[in-house]
Structure formats: C-alpha cells, structure tokens
Amino acid sequence: xxxxxxxxxxxxxxxxxxxxxxxxxxxxxxxxxxxxxxxxxxxxxxxxxxxxxxxxxxxxxxxxxxxxxxxxxxxxxxxxxxxxxxxxxxxxxxxxxxxxxxxxxxxxxxxxxxxxxxxxxxxxxxxxxxxxxxxxxxxxxxxxxxxxxxxxxxxxxxxxxxxxxxxxxxxxxxxxxxxxxxxxxxxxxxxxxxxxxxxxxxxxxxxxxxxxxxxxxxxxxxxxxxxxxxxxxxxxxxxxxxxxxxxxxxxxxxxxxxxxxxxxxxxxxxxxxxxxxxxxxxxxxxxxxxxxxxxxxxxx
Length: 300
Fold this sequence. Notes:
By secondary structure, the protein is an alpha+beta fold. Helices cover 53% and strands 9% of the residues.
C-alpha cells in the first residue's frame, strides 16, 4: 500500500486494478480469468446528474448472483460552473466533450461493491484508508485475507472500472444536450441571449469561482486543458465585463496670474480729497437732472 496516493483517481485505480488482476490463476482471488465470467448488466446514470454517482450492476455467470457497484466522482458539482463558462465561450460541442472526458477520466472517486469479497478480502478497508470508500467506512483490517494490504478492488469492481473508462467519452457526449437544457441555451442564439441576461457582477463572480474550483480540483491536466480551450475565447467575456477606460481629461491650461502693481502714493492732501468729493457730487447731480428730463419726455 506504500505506493497508493491519498484519494484514488479513477485512472490510477484502473491501472492498479489491472495490475491486481494481471495473472491467470484459474477462478481464484485476483485472477485474470474472471474477466469472461463477470458481465455488466446495468448502468444507472440518473443519479449521476444529481450527485455524480453511477450505479453499475454486474452478474456472475458462475454463481448467477448480481451485485451493485456505485462509483462517485467526488467533485462533480464543482464542474458545472466551469462547463457554464465553456458554453459562454461558444466552444464547439466536441471541445466541451473533450473537457468532460478528461475530467471524468482523471477525477478522484469513491467506490464500493456489495459482494462479500469486497469486504472480507480487504478492499473495503484499504479504500477507507485512502478516503476512496463509497458509503460506510470499514475500520477492521483484513488480518488473514489481505495481510499485505494490497487489494483495492474485487473482481466485480475491476470489471466495472474498465467498462466505465471504455465508455466515458460516449457518456460525456450524452451530457451535452442535458446541460444545454440546464443552462437554457438550446437554440443557436441562446448563448448571446443568456449573456445579455447576466449581470456583469454575476459573471465576474462566476469566473472567480471557476478559477478557485480549478485550483481545488488539484488536477493539472484539467486546468491546463481549460486554459488551452479558453485562451482565445475568454477575451470576449473579459471585454464584456471590463468597462472601457475613457481617455484622460486634458488639464486646462492656466494663464499666469499677473501681479497687481502696487498703488502709487500720490500724497493727496485734505483739500485735494474734498475737491474730488465735490466733483463726484456735481457729476451725480448732472446725471440726476438728465434722468428727470428723460422721464418728463416719456410722460408727454
């Protein structure tokens, strides 16, 4: 178990399971020979749209018994806001399918099988230790059946994980019509209409949330793909939410303030001042006489 990372990703778990069942041992534990005798009979995708869980049903051709294998993508709900931005960027469906396919092939999962071997041969306990058990945890180590703590899957879960990875692209393609209805963009003009309905503050919040969630997923392959897909198309959204910057206002050219010349000291004496007062009074008297003359002419 020393080579097992905390929280198994679906692609890691498939590779580990194939290694666990890589030898032909007859119909014994961890034998490759079981592949021909266990078949996938049912896949319930309805719960996937609600909580990211797909419930498989397998049947053993030897015993005739059927068991269920739920597989849950841990962070499925976080992917929806990212898909929303990809649709707003007007990416073609095949590019969005590529993103979904990458996510669903590399995401952390929780898994379980209802068969007795899953519990008694150590898979339930070992998956609990790496936070990848679906449902109740199992804290009782398999002292006798799996002393090396190396069994992560039973034969049913081994078959299911490989079946899932084989059909993940088809399943991702089937999600596109659902999300177009979910986001209300079925028509060719749906994206433009949706953008007009979204407030700029809301769009900024969604973009910030997408950036945060990509970091929380801790999936460099997915983050790099998102950046590649939106490198050219994201600019349109950024222009949409960023107001145009007005040209700077040119400062008004100020005229230099002319300094007032100091008043000359004319050294007026008292007689000069009295004369100026008399002249001002005479001027006022003449103006008053002229005003009365004009008023008299108007009255006539």
